[in-house]
Amino acid sequence: MEVNAEKKFIESYDRMLDEEIVLSARDGNATSLEYIINKYKNFVRAKARSYFLIGADKEDIVQEGMIGLYKAIRDFRNDKLSSFRAFAELCITRQIITAIKTATRQKHIPLNSYVSLNKPIYDEESDRTLLDILTATKITDPEELIISREELVSIESKIGEILSDLELEVLMSYLQGKS
Fold it and tell me: Which CATH architecture has domain 2-112?
């Protein structure tokens, strides 16, 4: 029974103009607001698809677009000579572009180019992180120092056996910070 009532309710919205639904939503009708947001959800996704935001997920851009849609619903004036769809498209696009400009400002460069201290160092399966290396205590025990040197020599010799001269040169350059 509830599904039929909801279906009839949606059918009544399907017959209404978007402008009427928006005015109803602005008057506090939560169902109208939900309907118009659901109706334009795919439109927002389509607009967001053509943008990229450094350090953000695609869903973050979609959310910015949804904020733009909400602002369009809030600010739409029926007395202007534009349709709600055109106004919503403008608001969605502007909101996404504003978010991208804000995120890429010079003062946000440290946030956008961060290196996580908890990210595995070598590969995704590695248990060793940058934080482990930074917080490791300095080895003062002579026995541990000798063992560490022996391990280093062993690793270097294995790398020398496995890699070609060119690969070894590239690895050394990379470890020295060259790209």
Answer: Orthogonal Bundle (1.10)
Which tens digit of pLDDT belongs to each residue from 7-64? 556 667 778 888 888 998 989 888 889 999 999 999 999 999 999 887 778 999 999 9
CA distance 129 to 122: 8
**Does the predicted model carry a pTM greater than 0.70?**
no
Instruction: Report the DSSP beta bridge partners of residue 129.
Output: 120
How far is Cα 111 from Cα 124, in angstroms, rounded to an integer?
22
Kindly list the domain boundaries of the chain, sorted by start residue: 2-112, 130-175
Task: Annotate 36-66 with three-state secondary structure.
Answer: HHHHHHHHHHHHHCCCCCCCCCHHHHHHHHH
Cβ of 153: how many Cβ atoms within 10 Å? 10
Maximum distance among all alpha carbons in the chain? 84
Residue 72 CB neighbour total at 10 angstroms: 23
